[in-house]
Amino acid sequence: MRNFTLTIAILFSFFVQPVHAQKSLSHNPVIEGWYADPEGVIFGNRYWIFPTYSNIYAKQVFLDAFSSKDMVTWKKHSRIIDTSIIKWAHMAMWAPAIVKRDNKYFLFFSANDIQSKERNGLKDDTLGGTGLILKFSLEHYLREA
Fold first, then answer.
1. Domain limits for position 55
2. What are the tens digits of pLDDT across the range 47-76?
3. pTM exceeds 0.90, yes or no
4. Can you name the residues that pair with 66 across neighbouring β-strands?
5. Are 114 and 121 in contact (CB under 8 A)?
């Protein structure tokens, strides 16, 4: 009987795993969706990702941002900026970058790409450019993060 009990105890130990609180691990990719050109920065105690939303140029008209306190759980901040407030930009917003100086945030981005009426059938040539949002208001997103 003693051998039987010992055998059962050994078999039981193989099939029953101890329950431990598991630490959450990051996954790849860390954010869901179709994004490219990520800018990674740390402001205060939060990690931020400012990526390009990848789509056809006509739909690539905004920038999202993502924030995290632990680099595991990420919060999406949708459409932090879009072409409705950038009058010269009407498509293809991409490659954002952000810096902080003197408690002000400055958001850089590219837009429009360089389009040719001959190549793409547009009514006129469209020049691309680099935009700068002076005093970009990240405080709103810091509060909601």
1. 33-144
2. 999 999 999 888 999 999 999 999 999 999
3. no
4. 49, 76
5. no
Is 96 in contact with 107 (CB distance < 8 Å)?
Answer: yes
Provide the domain count of the chain. 1
Distance of alpha carbon 79 from alpha carbon 101, whole angstroms:
23
Q: Domain for residue 78, yes or no?
A: yes
Contact 30, 71 (CB under 8 A): yes
CATH number of the domain residue 81 falls in? 2.115.10.20
How far lies 48's CA from each of 28, 128, 139, 142, in Å? 16, 26, 13, 10
**Is residue 50 packed enough to be buried (19+ CB in 10 Å), middle (13-18) or exposed (0-12)?**
buried
Cis preceding-peptide flag for 29 (omega within 30 of 0): yes
